Amino acid sequence: MHMDSTLWTVELYPPGRDGGCVEEFIGGLPAEQQARVAKKIELLEEYGPFSLGSGHVELVVGTKNRVYALRIRGKFSIRLLFACVGSTIVILHGIQKKAGRLSKQDRDRADRRAGEITDYYRERHT
């Protein structure tokens, strides 16, 4: 039993808004990595981002909007960058992580999208 009693919903950032489609990124991964991504998303929905711990979720440093990274390991590391709006988790951007930190371009894209979705979901749910 987990401590977080919130019912979480995970959604993907809508395609076509500024290029780079999360759904296409995930669909373009090898089957084994797609399965790992699906399992991590299930864990995110079940336990929420704040109960999974730092081995799974980390705050992305250098963003104005609170952007987090869901860490997925395998043959290569994947990061799904997301933001929370109420009990909705929106996956904003996906990348194959290479050595070192996330690039400024990836952080900026996720940060910009986080600002957009925060406004969008607040309007939709008020």
Main attributes of the structure:
126 residues, YaeB-like fold, 5-stranded mixed β-sheet
Main β-sheet, spatial strand arrangement: 1-5-4-3-2
List SSEs in N-to-C order.
EHHEEEEH
Q: What's the overall geometry?
A: globular
Helical segment tally? 3
The biggest beta sheet is recorded as: 5 strands, mixed
Going by CATH, the architecture would be 2-Layer Sandwich
Per DSSP, what share of the residues sits in E-state strands of 2 or more residues?
15-25%
Can you describe this structure?
This protein is of the alpha+beta class. It has helices at residues 22-27, 31-47, 104-124, and strands at 9-12, 57-59, 68-72, 77-85, 88-97. It has a five-stranded mixed sheet. β3 and β4 (77-85) form a beta hairpin. The model has no long low-confidence stretch (mean pLDDT 86).
Offer a quick outline of the entry.
The chain has a single domain (9-124), classed as RelE-like (YaeB-like fold), CATH 3.30.2310. Helices cover 35% and strands 25% of the residues.
Please write out the topology.
Elements: E1 9-12, H1 22-27, H2 31-47, E2 57-59, E3 68-72, E4 77-85, E5 88-97, H3 104-124
Parallel strand pairs: 1-5
Antiparallel strand pairs: 2-3, 3-4, 4-5
